[in-house]
Amino acid sequence: MLRKRIIPCLDIKDGRTVKGVNFVDLKDAGDPIELAKKYSRIGADELVFLDITATHEKRKTLVPLVEKIAREVNIPFTVGGGVSSIEDAGALLNAGADKIAVNSAAVKRPELIRELADKFGNQCVVLAIDAKLTEKGWKVFLVGGRKQTELGLFEWAEEAQKLGAGEILFTSMNHDGTKAGFAIEALKTLDESLTIPVIASGGAGEVQHFEDLFLQTKVSAALAASVFHFQTIEIPELKYNLAQKNIPVRTIV
User: Of 45, 88, 130, 176, which one is the catalytic site residue?
Assistant: First the structure.
């Protein structure tokens, strides 16, 4: 059985790690390099770095910061934010990223997913989807959650899989930062409609939420930020508890 992955997320703004609630009211959460070193040391399975204002500010991801973090970690490292071309992705991979996350640019030009997969391989391409449950169902949002589209979460994920995405990172904007638990029902539907791995993001607040996620859905990984950054949950403790529930996890430090 494939082991479930625990993934801390570094949301980066102005070179610092930040965290908010429902994508707003951002607060400083620490130095990204120091956090990355810590997570690599204590047993995180992967690390995600998202430059959350790159698209809004119409600039590229912070390559020098990616280089510095890559030198400090020995776990798979996914980077996203402002990636809109093969050249952007290549620069990040050369800086030390293992995978590239695309979001807004892929919605605007879906062919980008196929281009990246053809150039770097499906395993390098992560489609990040920020979606919110609206009166019309789950809708995809762009530019760091600032712009609603009419694109449906499930339809977009299926299209991305066909285009060559190797993984889906779904963040529920309704749940983000609330610490009230993951979007279980949406994640069930999403995972059942796909053959590629799904990473759940948004809503982690206690160990029980991770247990519920893995016991009630078949998603491959759980991503969280503030509970790890502010030490509400320590990753070794989390993995120990998951293992006690017979949830397969990777090496416990």
Answer: 130
